[in-house]
Design brief:
about 425 residues; alpha/beta; Aspartate Aminotransferase, domain 1; 16 helices; about 45% helix; binds pyridoxal-5'-phosphate
Length: about 425
């Protein structure tokens, strides 16, 4: 039976090689990271922390975790790091659990403005346990409205302000958020899951001098294994460690912690910085090409690795009848037929539901890891526009799929 799974892994490898991946939260981990994630470190139970475990035989994994912590602190210049959270969601839960009681008030960016489920959505643990008050964007600029955040903080007196997003293409002003949090006597959590790689490469201002806590994933721009971590000021170290274990998790995934250590190490190289520079260049080039082709890019552009396209605007400009209207779901499914993978996304002030929203989200971390530069990124925009223009012509779409596969062949993800 296990052959079935190995066959599926091969099938997934072929799918990844043959498709252009524009999902902003995905990337391709290096062979070293894959090797560590698939290593015998998965065998070891190590509840606790280095030097203070509830199991024997931890002398080697203690060194692994200590090294991962050191690498994480060095990379982000942090006072304390906990590398045990299994994911970004667990990292956020860990921070909340360390500081809040059920019912406590928190400010978080609304999901439909670009925030994440764990920033207070009602269907998530965050919104059902705590009293989250959502903040959004300015309707004029489609960018964060810091004045609104300040007013909400004065009105609701939150214990924590959560900053960070899953679908926001602009630089976040952590200094301003820090001022708002200190003015209002509350703590600041920056969830840098999406932009951790850009911050590591110093291409987005670091939240470290300003935030009390930083949570993150390791698998998006940071290009590590699928996981999470927390950094915090030294004064919160004990509470954070206790909240993660024994608070919300059991044994750490030592194989993944080893892979995280490698990711933190790789993120300190010159190659990584060059890679992140290219991620941003590719995103800017794509956003510009979409604009030239008549699409509206939310907020008019991007400062980071992603941007959103407003398809409602396209429907209006092209005066499309109801039956031919574009939506996020229609475009996601159409492009999948042509081996281009992205995700539907709400746009700011969307009137449509998240299941069939008015936008698509486009990200460049994965294509840049593959070696695509601006010219390739712009070709992809033309592929997308061609697919949209010819969406009722199956023959055209089949030919485009073959063209995309050929295009991908020139950029193997894993060489052997
Ligand atoms: C800003 C942000 N925080 C947290 C998460 C959750 O990460 P995970 O899927 O690892 O739980 C995500 C995932 O997309 C995210 O975008």
């Amino acid at each position: 039976m296990q052959n079935y799974i190995f066959e599926l892994i091969k099938e997934e490898k072929i799918r990844e090689e043959k498709t252009i991946n524009l999902i902003a939260s995905e990337n391709y981990a290096s062979p070293e990271i894959l090797q560590a994630t698939g290593s015998i470190l998965t065998n070891k139970y190590a509840e606790g922390y280095p030097g203070a475990r509830y199991y024997g035989g931890c002398q080697v994994v203690d060194k692994v975790e200590t090294y991962a912590i050191d690498m994480c602190k060095k990379l982000f210049n942090a006072e304390h790091a906990n590398v045990q959270p299994h994911s970004g969601s667990s990292a956020n839960f860990g921070v909340y659990f360390s500081q809040l009681k059920p019912g406590d008030t928190v400010l978080g960016m609304a999901l439909n403005a670009g925030g994440h489920l764990t920033h207070g959505h009602k269907i998530n643990f965050s919104g059902s346990i705590f009293n989250f008050v959502p903040y959004g964007l300015s309707p004029e600029t489609e960018q964060l409205d810091y004045d609104e955040i300040e007013i909400l903080a004065q009105q609701h007196k939150p214990k924590i302000i959560v900053a960070g997003a899953s679908a926001y293409s602009r630089t976040i002003d952590f200094e301003k958020l820090h001022k708002i949090s200190t003015n209002n006597n509350c703590l600041l959590l920056v969830d840098m899951a999406h932009i951790a790689g850009l911050i590591a490469a110093e291409l987005h201002p670091s939240p470290i001098p300003f935030a009390d806590f930083i949570s993150s994933t390791t698998h998006k721009t940071l290009r590590g294994p699928r996981s999470g971590f927390i950094c915090c000021k030294a004064e919160f170290a004990q509470k954070i460690d206790k909240a993660i274990m024994p608070g919300i998790q059991g044994g750490p995934l030592m194989h993944v912690i080893a892979a995280k250590a490698i990711a933190f190490e790789q993120a300190q190289t010159k190659e990584f910085k060059k890679y992140q520079e290219q991620v941003i260049k590719n995103a800017k080039a794509m956003a510009q090409t979409f604009t030239e082709l008549g699409y509206r890019v939310v907020s008019g552009g991007t400062d980071n690795h992603l941007f959103l396209i407003d398809l409602q605007d396209k429907n209006k400009k092209d005066n499309l009848p109801e039956t031919q209207k574009l939506s996020g779901k229609v475009v996601e499914q159409l492009l999948q037929k042509c081996n281009i993978i992205l995700n539907r996304n709400t746009i700011p002030f969307d009137t449509q539901p998240p299941t069939n929203p008015s936008g698509i989200r486009i990200g460049t971390p994965a294509i840049t890891t593959r070696g695509f530069v601006e010219t390739h990124a712009c070709s992809i925009v033309h592929f997308i526009d061609d697919a949209i223009k010819n969406r009722f012509d199956d023959d055209f779409l089949n030919k485009l799929k073959i063209k995309v596969e050929q295009f991908c062949k020139n950029f193997p993800i894993y060489k052997d």
